[in-house]
Amino acid sequence: MMQRLRAQTCAKLSRSHSVKCEAAGQADTVRIAFRGREVEVPRGSKLRTALLRAGLTPHSEGAMYINCRGIGSCGTCAVEIEGEVQPAVWTTAEQLRLNFPPHSAPGNQRLRLACQVACSGDLLRVTKYDKFWGEGSAALPDLPSAHPVAAVAEAPEAPAGAGGAATSRTAAGGVTPLGELEFILDRGARQAERRQQ
User: Fold this and answer.
1) How far is CA 126 from CA 3, 81, 135, 154, in A?
2) In whole angstroms, what is the distance from residue 175 CA to residue 125 CA?
3) In contact, 108 and 98? CB cutoff 8 Å
4) Which of 3, 9, 59, 158 is least enclosed, having the fewest CB within 10 Å?
5) For residue range 31-68, what is the model confidence (pLDDT) as tens digits?
6) Terminus-to-terminus CA distance in the chain, angstroms?
7) Which of left, alpha, beta for 24 (phi over 0: left; psi -120 to 50: alpha)?
8) SUPFAM superfamilies, per this entry (predicted)?
9) Are strands 111-113 and 37-42 parallel, antiparallel or unpaired?
10) How many other β-carbons are positioned within 10 Å of the β-carbon of residue 118?
11) C-alpha torsion 179→114→61→51, nearest 10
């Protein structure tokens, strides 16, 4: 119990003050296994942001362009998660969205919205299901081996290209069509970006 409390406190501090968590016996990163890939992401990052920065997407192909960008209103980032995330229970946004069509019981009970949970365990196994909102019953297959994946989920913005617009590394991979604007609603991502500057 005390170890868990220290880990939770350390996770909160690391998000707000860039504190290292080795003293609590906890690494600064979380491993995520998703569609046949494994990436390491900063502990405390939103799952949606972490996947996108790693060149992966919790959205179906069509929802990559049409989604709420992380406020929890569309439900297109619904995934099944094995491992520890925070909060451990559905947020209010998840209660509202995952109980609204096309999501329904009992299939919705296994889902979480990637935009509403922070990575906190050592290893997260994330499964995306078929259909536009991920409400299907068939898990999406592993990604082809040629699919590019960033080594760490902290992908800094690249310099402006020939068109004058700055793009993120993952925008080239095709999972963040809006580049860094994809993360504008993720307060944690904005805070991490400010700390890096």
Assistant:
1) 25, 5, 14, 19
2) 20
3) yes
4) 3
5) 999 999 999 999 999 999 999 999 999 998 889 888 99
6) 37
7) alpha
8) 2Fe-2S ferredoxin-like (SSF54292)
9) unpaired
10) 21
11) 50
